[in-house]
Specification:
The complex is a heterotrimer of chains A (about 170), B (about 400) and C (about 400). Chain A has about 170 residues and is an alpha/beta fold. Chain A has one domain: NADH:ubiquinone oxidoreductase Nqo5 subunit (Beta Polymerase, domain 2, 2-Layer Sandwich). Chain A is about 20% helix and about 25% strand. Chain A has a five-stranded mixed beta sheet with strand order 1-2-5-4-3, with helices on one face. In chain A, strands 6-7 form a two-stranded parallel ribbon. A two-stranded antiparallel sheet of chain A has the order 8-9. Chain A is globular and about 55 Å long. Chain B has one domain. Chain B is globular and about 60 Å long. Chain C is about 45% helix and about 10% strand. Chain C contains 17 helices and eight strands. In chain C, helix 4 packs antiparallel against helix 5 and helix 13 packs parallel to helix 16. The relative contact order of chain C is 0.19. The chains are: A alpha/beta (about 170), B mainly alpha (about 400), C alpha+beta (about 400). At the A-C interface, strand 3 and helix 3 of A face helix 9, strand 6, strand 7, strand 8 and helix 14 of C.
């Protein structure tokens, strides 16, 4: 099944969760509302014609233009990108969840997305990495703590407005 | 002093130069001489084995090994390593129990070394042995088991969980394998009728067909059980779990460096060599060669003291060569086989070695009863061999119990 | 310099009596890199394994947001440093997918040849170090001796032994030097008997089978759910290989090549060569099968390398032009996974229309493969932990990036 057909099936079953799509991109993607993510994912995994049994990757992408000289074509936001595939039917899908950079626009409060780690067990570590590096909190995650950075690190390095700390345990940062 | 030998022991010889009541000093001096000679042997064996192991492992791995220190073959590599170990910093971890940590290597080495006191290196009437014991096999097996104390103390005293793990595994392994080792050593003892290693060696005098390993098929199979148990009791691969490098860094030896480590290391090589000497005497004729060359060349006691000395010297070289072959086989095994897990080590001991050894004991017992002269006598009855197996042993007291005489003489 | 803070997670452990919290690593002879495994053990039985990673995190993805696409290739080398060519290939194909750039035929065949040789080298390291973990010292040296020959070939091609940066966006950096194909053929001919030796020393060795049979059994459902790929997935019986089953942009590299995917189908492995038989004690999905799949894949890689050399000789000259540094990437994003030796390595590039990617993401196979270790090690003995971790064949450079 190609992505337009998958999108049709999704709209028929969980129409309220689908917030948008881009079928002309190189990897066609479907945007999902954060609250509907677990339902959509469970449907994608369990529906016999879809059977998306492998989650390949969860990535966090920060869309904030920090260079004042460049014109930004997008509103600052954060995207969490899910790459799925089905080993049974051999089709692929990209899901995106578009989030504000800070929850309720309060600086320091991380945006939230429900976890899919009970649907695909690999999401456990991938979501920890997105939390660690891009600063997205996953509700319902069994053990959300930093994975690549040390446990007491401050800040989320892959955000565009991140600055190295001045010092870390006596080691000079910048 | 016992009177069953014709030539004086070293102690007796020295005491002839001392006044009557100073006899004990002669004994002490003789003991010092024996210990010095054995220490030279043990340490030389350790150093030579170190070099040889590196060469053997290198060749098996398609590379050369030491080639620079001391000429083309790296002869002095062991010496260089020894100097390095002696000059290293003496490091004791903060959590270590000071006394136990310091004591452990010495315990291990002393236990290993004490085995040599009862091992004869040449035979004849007196035997080249530090202390001739008529329970020599029992002594050897008992003292060999003492090495585990050093290991446990090392593991506990290091104050590290990894060392403790290594020590516990070692304790379980060595103590368990003492049982099949003793059973396997018991069979040649039973066949020979004595625990005295000099007597066992002397019985295998006339060529390789007299060697105990060819006495009956059960003794033959027992040798392989003995080999497995010996490898396990000296912690060599595939039973080297206590020192498992890739899992526990170095097991119970993790916190040891410098001289203390070199003592453990020497203890291991000394033990390897000692169990090989024991195997050579029990199964492979000891100091007797495959053909009785010494007799043919006239290098025996009946031709005078110097000839006897030369004959014994050749015998000693023979024994050392056989033992070294045993050491080489152990090295070969180490560099070829992966390591067994602790539960598999225990399984091999309890489910395979002990039942097989017990079955061999039973079989050998039945065989000795049915064919007392062994395979050789059954196949090719030779009057001298028959007489020797039938006659009372060389050093038996003059009046054997009646039942024994009837049993042996009535054949 | 000492960190005073106590790991808050460990302090909250509910440690019962008789339980021991043992730490393996980060410096440890058998954890394949700087990996810290905290074992909660009850005597010799492991109740739980918690892996801690991040000791080798070098911020490659952040750096990728500051460099032109072609300048990031050396950073991909250092991810799975044992299979640098496959990493380069993954990133190059991803950016070519974004650009819609096709490489010349000769470059395509060169890429296959080099990638398969690197697969052999990576599997040799996996096999040798696995033997070393289990106490078998000699096969390790034999494997590394053969790997040296491959590294010598690579040095002739691009000047480097480990971090190549040879496969680039647009093709490869340079054509093969004179006489290289003959050397490669000579190596392949001398290598085949060594594979049989390794089978005798390792695959069929009774002690190794004893140590790995039934240990760390991974069911296919769990493997797919945990995102395990590569030999780990195929050893559980899932017949999936991206070189045959991947998306078109990935499989077009292997068009025209014949090879078998090594996975147990209908109870049998492919029979195209005299492989050692599967012993009866092993269970599908255990450590032995993962080892076996890698050994068999080496033979397939030799086959592929020979086919690639044939195709190379017949192809027209021209290995492509590396992407110019001032070339602007089109707006959009592209994600592509390729079959690297350790699993499926995925790269994502998001571009805002400039020469520098907006986001460069690497999805590593070992990251997902390692996450399953806490499931596999439940209830095993301590001595089984290196056996399981070694069979997953992880490389920390890839996990931590």
């Amino acid at each position: 099944m190609d992505t337009p057909a998958i999108l049709e099936k999704l709209k028929q079953n969980i129409g309220s969760g689908i917030a948008g799509s881009n079928l002309e991109a190189i990897d066609p993607w479907v945007e999902v509302a954060p609250g509907a993510l677990p339902e959509v994912c469970r449907f994608l995994r369990d529906e016999p014609e879809l059977r998306f049994n492998m989650l390949h990757c969860i990535s966090g992408v920060d869309y904030l233009q920090t260079d004042p000289k460049k014109k930004s074509e997008w509103e600052p936001h954060l995207e969490v990108v899910y790459h799925l595939s089905s080993l049974v039917h051999r089709h692929r899908l990209v899901l995106k969840v578009i989030l504000p950079r800070w929850k309720d626009n309060v600086e320091g409060q991380l945006p939230e997305v429900p976890t899919v780690s009970d649907i695909w067990r690999t999401a456990d570590w991938h979501e920890r990495e997105v939390y660690d590096l891009s600063g997205v909190r996953f509700q319902g995650h069994p053990d959300l703590r930093r994975i690549l950075c040390p446990e007491d690190w401050v800040g989320h390095p892959l955000r565009k407005d991140y600055q190295m700390p001045l010092e870390y345990h006596g080691i000079r940062g910048r | 002093m016992p009177e069953y030998h014709q030539y004086p022991s070293l102690a007796e010889f020295v005491s002839t130069f001392l006044p009557e009541s100073w006899g004990w000093l002669a004994y002490v001096l003789a003991a010092l001489v024996h210990v010095a000679l054995l220490l030279v042997l043990a340490l030389t064996v350790a150093a030579a084995s170190n070099w040889f192991e590196r060469k053997v492992s290198a060749r098996m791995q398609d590379r050369l090994g030491p080639t620079r220190v001391g000429g083309r073959f790296g002869w002095l590599q062991s010496v260089a390593d020894g100097i390095k170990l002696l000059t290293k910093e003496d490091l004791i971890p903060r959590e270590a129990d000071g006394l136990l940590f310091r004591l452990a290597p010495y315990l291990s080495f002393c236990a290993s070394f004490s085995i040599y006191l009862a091992l004869p290196f040449a035979g004849g009437a007196g035997g080249w042995v530090a202390q001739r014991l008529n329970i020599a096999v029992f002594f050897v097996l008992a003292v060999a088991g003492l090495e585990v104390f050093g290991v446990i103390l090392a593991g506990y005293g290091s104050g590290s969980k990894w060392s403790l793990f290594g020590a516990m595994r070692e304790a379980a392994q060595v103590v368990s394998y003492e049982v099949p080792l003793a059973l396997a050593a018991l069979i040649p003892v039973m066949v020979a009728g004595s625990m005295d290693l000099v007597r066992i060696g002397n019985l295998q005098k006339d060529g390789f067909w007299d060697w105990l390993i060819f006495h009956d098929p059960f003794t033959f199979l027992t040798f392989f059980v003995y080999l497995t148990c010996a490898v396990a009791s000296v912690n060599r691969a595939p039973f080297d779990l206590p020192e498992a490098e890739s899992e526990l860094v170095a097991g119970f030896m993790t916190e040891y460096s410098g001289f203390r480590w070199s003592l453990f290391f020497m203890a291991e090589y000394a033990s390897m060599f000692a169990v090989s000497v024991l195997a050579a005497i029990l199964f492979f004729g000891g100091w007797n060669g495959p053909l009785p060359l010494a007799e043919w060349l006239g290098l025996t006691q009946s031709h005078g003291g110097l000839a006897a000395y030369a004959g014994n010297f050749l015998g000693m070289c023979n024994l050392l060569a056989k033992s070294y072959l045993g050491v080489i086989v152990m090295m070969w095994l180490r560099w070829t086989l992966p390591r067994l897990r602790i539960d598999q080590v225990m399984t091999v001991c309890l489910k395979y070695c002990i039942p097989v050894a017990a079955a061999m004991l039973l079989g050998a017992m039945v065989w000795c009863y049915a064919l007392p002269g062994g395979l050789v006598r059954a196949v090719r009855p030779h009057p001298e061999a028959a007489a020797r197996w039938g006659a009372p042993p060389v050093d038996q007291p003059p009046h054997p119990p009646a039942a024994l005489a009837a049993g042996k003489g009535g054949r | 310099m000492v960190l005073e803070r106590v790991d808050p997670e460990l302090a909250e452990f509910d440690v019962h009596t008789d339980e021991l919290l043992v730490n393996m690593g980060p410096q440890h002879p058998s954890t394949h890199g700087v990996l810290r495994l905290v074992l909660r053990t009850d005597g010799e039985v492991v109740k739980e394994v918690i892996p801690h990673i991040g000791y080798l995190h070098r911020c490659a993805e952040k750096i990728g947001e500051n460099l032109a696409a072609r300048q990031w290739i050396p950073y991909t080398d250092r991810m799975d440093y044992l299979a640098g060519m496959n990493m380069n290939l993954g990133w190059a194909l991803t950016v070519e997918k974004l650009l819609g750039l096709e490489v010349p035929e000769r470059a395509r065949h060169l890429r296959v040849l080099i990638a398969e040789l690197n697969r052999i080298a990576s599997h040799l390291v996996a096999a040798g170090t696995y033997g070393l973990d289990l106490g078998s010292f000699t096969p390790f040296v034999h494997c590394f001796r053969e790997r040296e020959k491959i590294l010598d070939l690579f040095e002739r091609v691009c000047g480097a032994r480990l971090t190549y940066s040879y496969i680039t966006i647009g093709g490869v950096m340079a054509d093969l030097p004179r006489g290289w194909l003959d050397e490669c053929e000579a190596f392949l001919v001398s290598f085949e008997p060594v594979i049989d030796d390794l089978h005798a020393l390792l695959t069929s060795n009774a002690i190794l089978i004893h140590r790995t049979a039934g240990i760390g059994v991974l069911s296919p459902e769990m493997a797919v759910s945990y995102g395990c790929t590569g030999p780990v997935l195929r050893a559980s019986g899932v017949n999936w290989d991206l070189r045959r089953d991947g998306e078109p942009w990935c499989t077009r590299t292997y068009v025209g090549y014949k090879f078998e995917v090594i996975a147990e189908t209908d109870g049998r492995y492919p029979q195209d060569a005299p492989y050692p038989p599967v012993p009866s004690a092993v269970v599908l999905g255990d450590c032995w099968h993962r080892f076996y799949v890698r050994m068999l894949e080496v033979v397939q890689s030799v086959k592929l390398a020979r086919q690639a050399m044939d195709y190379y000789r017949k192809s027209p000259p021209g290995v492509g032009e590396p992407l110019r540094l001032v070339q602007k990437l089109p707006k959009g994003e592209a994600y592509l996974e390729t079959e690297a030796p350790k699993g499926q390595m995925g790269f994502m590039v998001v571009s805002d229309g400039t020469t520098v990617p907006w986001r460069a993401r690497a999805r590593s196979s070992s990251f997902c493969n390692l996450s399953v270790v806490s499931e596999l090690c439940r209830g095993c003995l301590i001595a089984d932990v290196p056996a399981i971790v070694g069979s997953l064949d992880i490389v920390l450079g890839e996990i931590d990036r």
